[in-house]
Design goal:
Blueprint lengths: L4 H25 L8 H17 L32 E3 L14 E13 L2 E12 L9 E15 L4 E14 L3 E14 L5 E14 L14 E13 L2 E15 L9 E12 L2 E11 L2 E6 L1
Antiparallel strand pairs: 1-2, 2-3, 3-4, 4-5, 5-6, 6-7, 7-8, 8-9, 9-10, 10-11, 11-12
Length: about 300
């Protein structure tokens, strides 16, 4: 029997342990991988921009201008950037406190189609306009979205879409609109047919450029938008926790004919996954134009 075999086995065992230790130490002390690649940062940015714009959809809807219980509804033009009018039920909604918000009214959009400079946009789904305090005369309103979808087809025939489910609590006056969304769910389809979901808890404040410019059931005027909050973003098998801020408020341009309808401002998104973080900076440079960078 060779007396050196146990010694050799010990050397081999020690060598293997050393290699494993070096590998583990390298993983612990080496450069940490970022939470997002450049392509993934672009995906996050695209969805965040779409949701920021969607926060302003229906922001001034009141359920119909001039609706009075017991009277026939007037010809209705809703303050929504869509190319057709929704079905309204009930036609004459109740209004227990006689303020500007009906107790409850449903707006149903059935594949409204309109043209943008860079393609076509189809809108369908349901928005419920609800008075959360139906016996108190105030400015409170709740907007509930059910499978509310926008489908964009660009000039190359590529399709992307955003579908909203959830509700927003809104307080507004003639100069400001404050919105709070809790567990508001967005499903997003990218042009390559991949899917993402975004579940957010956001506080949003819109301030009109001109005091007194915000009117119920009228088009939203130009103004600035700030967004603060947290969310969870899932794309494929990758899920991240996000924190969103607007160090420079986004400027909503009411005359802009493209989405997003921002022409200035900055969104900062910090994504965290498995202890690693990536900062995504979204800078709006003109009507419908923005850049995404990661660091």
């Amino acid at each position: 029997m060779n007396a050196h075999i146990p010694h050799r086995r010990l050397l081999v065992t020690l060598a293997g342990a050393t290699v494993l230790c070096l590998a583990a130490c390298s993983e612990r002390t080496g450069p940490q991988q970022p939470a997002l690649t450049a392509a993934q940062a672009d995906s996050v940015g695209e969805v965040i921009v779409a949701d920021a714009q969607a926060e302003l959809d229906a922001a001034t809807a009141g359920g119909g201008a001039g609706l009075v219980p017991g009277q026939s509804p007037p010809s209705l033009t809703l303050p929504l950037p869509f190319g057709c009018q929704p079905a309204i039920t009930p036609a004459v909604p109740g209004n227990s406190d006689a303020d500007r918000v009906p107790d409850s009214v449903r707006l149903t959009f059935a594949s409204c189609v309109f043209m943008l400079r860079r393609g076509s946009d189809t809108v369908r789904g349901v928005i419920d306009v609800v008075d959360p305090t139906p016996t108190v005369t105030d400015r409170a309103i709740k907007l509930a979205f059910t499978d509310f979808a926008r489908i964009l087809v660009d000039r190359s025939g590529r399709l992307s879409s955003i579908t909203l489910n959830g509700s927003r609590q809104v307080i507004r006056d003639s100069a400001h609109i404050a919105q709070t969304a809790v567990d508001f769910h967005t499903d997003y389809v990218f042009r390559d047919n991949s899917l993402a979901s975004h579940v957010r808890n956001w506080d949003v404040l819109f301030t009109a450029d001109s005091a007194g410019a915000i009117r119920v059931d009228s088009w939203l005027p130009s103004g600035t938008l700030t967004v603060t909050g947290s969310s969870t973003f899932t794309h494929g098998d990758r899920s991240l926790a996000l924190q969103v801020t607007t160090p420079t408020p986004l400027h909503f341009n009411a005359t802009c004919g493209d989405r997003p309808r921002f022409d200035a401002g900055t969104l900062i998104v910090v994504g965290t996954r498995a202890g690693a973080t990536t900062t995504v900076t979204i800078t709006f440079t003109g009507c419908g134009q923005y850049t995404i960078t990661k660091s």
